[in-house]
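Bench log, entry 3. Co-assembly request; chain sequences pasted below exactly as received.
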Amino acid sequence: MDTQFDLKNSYQESRLFRARALVSIIFIVILLIALLARMAYLQTTTHEKYAALSQGNYVRLSVITPVRGLIFDSNGQVLAENNPSYSLEVIPEQVPDLQATVKALSKIIPISAHEIKRFNKRIKQERRFNSIPIRQRLNEREVALFAVNRHRFRGVEIQARPVRHYPHSELVSHVVGYVAAINEKELKKIDTVNYRNSRFIGKTGVEKSFETELHGFVGYQQTENTARGRTLKTLSLAPPISGNALTTTIDINLQRVAYQALGDLTGAIAAIDTRTGAVRALVSKPGFDSNLFVQGIDHASYNSLQHSAKKPLFNRALRGQYPPGSTLKPFLALAGLEENVISSHGRINCPGYYQLPKQEHKYRDWKKGGHGNVNVHDAIVQSCDVFFYKLAHRLKIDRMHNFLARFGFGSKTGINLLGEKSGLLPSKEWKKRARNQVWFPGETLIAGIGQGFNLTTPLQLANATAIIANRGGIKRPFIVEKINDKAATAKQPTEPQVSLKKPKHWQEIISAMRDVIHGPRGTARRIKIGAQFDMAGKTGTAQVFGVKQNEEYDENKIVEHLKDHALFIAFAPVENPQLAVAVIVENGGHGGSVAAPIARAIFDQYIKVNE
Amino acid sequence: MNWQSPQPLSSKPAQQEQGFSLRALHIDSLLLVLLLTLASVGLFILMSAGHENINLIYRQLTRLGIAFITMLVIAQISPNTLKRLSPFLFLGGVILLIGVLLFGDMGKGAQRWLNFELFRFQPSELMKLATPMMIAWYFSNRNLPPKLKHIFYATLFIAIPTLLIAKQPDLGTAILIATSGIAVLFLAGISWKLISLVVAAGAGLAPILWGSMKTYQQQRVLTFLDPESDPLGAGYHIIQSKIAIGSGGVLGKGWMNSSQARLEFLPESSTDFIFAVFAEEFGLVGCIGLLLLYFLLFARAMQISIQAQDNFCRLLAGSIAITFFVYLFVNVGMVSGILPVVGVPLPLISYGGTSMVSLLIGFGILMSIHTHRKLLSS
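Structure output for the full assembly:
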């Protein structure tokens, strides 16, 4: 090769190379800038996003569900508790051969095909370090069986979770209520933060009324975890605050006596300590097993409860609205005396019926032939209807309404239990408003014997009876006495009174009510036998079904659900009263024969205990 | 070439300075300092990324030792010897690659290894250097810019190892080998016309190729391009890696404080994704420093190639320099989510053996080229 040419060419090649090297350097500088720009973008512009993601990666927030508060009766007996429910759970990550393990497990503990299917489905959905239940509600035998074989099953554990249990289930099913799985409607109302991981919520009774107190506050734990879910350390811990324990006023022994006294009858009982307003028994029959609801009631059981003719889920004591019938008479008698339309000793003649002036219609007395010459005392003792027709006619509906309202009729008692009904206390104004109709004089007469539009709840009746027992003193009824160790209710208003112009009228009415039981002609005289204390009461029979003018009510001819309701209100002892009771037996017939003995059984239990 | 100085370098009395003795040992002090700095930074990150496993550090130190010694040994070999060896190395490498496909060991799902009883050997690592050497050798005997015919043969020399390695499959290495070859072509001065033609043809062919693909193949390409559409599968690496980098912020979480690596969220934290650990611990400031360190290495290598005295040396040195930075770019690009995930380690820092050796052999060649220069008329 020619050296001259070689040199020239070499020079050109060298120049070409330098040019290309320069382009390469520019190209590499562009790549460098691209990388730096990318780093700057990730580490400044989007830094916060990734910092949060990083923290989310390793910090796991676990929620610790608070323990639900217990519910006690007034003697300290447990009405609602938390029992461990055992479930067999598998951590897939730790199990060498899942299907073989499941197969071996099902040989010692019965696992249904359905449960295995559900388990397999959840395995696919959840992360491999999560504990997944394969069998729930193990009994003690099954727990023991697994414990013995445990060494064979790596990654399989028995987990105990607290589940609500009601030891007296049916006895107090309506009062205590029950918890069950949170539904969609409740989900919208509750504080979803506090209820994270909570599976249950109070549905009825005390469980519902005091949900906030019982639930408590959720706790949190922040742990540092590896990508595989192993916990390295706890970063922070906010322990949960357990729900508050509630002490109810219910005396489980009294409740049991009341419940059993009703036998197979359908009805309700309210018993209030007249001295404080504490509700000692609140029974609605039939009851139901509240434990069924906790773990999820099956469809068939729920349907049979829901559609049963006797409506076991219905809390009659609080929400059942019944015509008070003759149990209203002592209150009306007081109204008559107070408004001076009758006197303590004035007598009227009872021929067995009553007619309004210039009217044909006969308002009958329950006793054919009548009670003869009766004063207010006799009228209460014998439950003379004619006396009260006349009284009502003179009193007129609005004065009646205004006086009875002072005893709490027509309005809620204010008990600290949700769902109370207010009953109905008719007035002209009410009829105009509710039905857009004028008031007829005949309706006043029927109202005078507690029929017609009048409706009361058993709780209202017991409360009104307590007001008589206290000679006008009002103690608002309550059912939850203490939250932990603090009083649950605000103090009773001081000296609340139904005050009469002449306080001696209290004594007159009470003595008449005493003679209902202790008098020779009293409608409930049979229950006085063997009593260690004096009682005062009033029977009632509420018509479910109107008897036509020319017919007679014949108990034997009438179908069960149209039979009269039997009512009885009473308090005891007459001097220094302790307990006021209202008993309603649906379609039970006569108050004196059916309802009154139940009240006696309750007094025997309560007053004996307290002496 | 009798106009050149016949004197060997070592006998030059004018060079009685510190650099002299190093030069006599064929060592480039600037390259050596930069390489040692990067390697030390690498050991520090490995301490954190490898969960403080001291055995990992010992093994990496051993590899570094072997690689640095190999580099210094290679630096002693004159460029002319390397040039003469080039076609044989290339041919041998291609034969070994075919051997790998036929008899190779499976490692991590791909056939990359040849088992020679005593040690395992990846022929693809050899090809990272043999390919640019081959093309540089091929062009060095011809006038530049190359004629079309020569470009065609050169393309063939690039395609053969690239395709063989891509088939293993080892896409990352295939890309780097193609890059090293293309870099030689570019530096050799192929016309801009031809370059734009190839780019235009590639752009034109892509949609046609896309249309001819089956749906599942298209899906595979899409996931490849957008890994975040599959957050628990293919996208998991890249999402966790971006979390690591992004959460580092400007100043970083500090050495040994990479939660992403310590808590095992970041996969391959000590190998391919070690840059994410560095970025998490040292932040943007650290990243800028580290990338500039790499750029300095590139710049020095480029300077060596510009100062080289014949085409073989120029082309080879330039290719080694460019490939080295592309190496870094592909790794950091994939770790930071601007490039698809292909298995390319972070040069000099990632834990691992064979790539370290081939990389430092490259720098050994650079040292050789620089220190075997014959000084012109000084």
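Confidence is low (pLDDT under 50) at residues 1-17 of chain B. Chain B touches chain A through 51 residues (CB under 8 Å).
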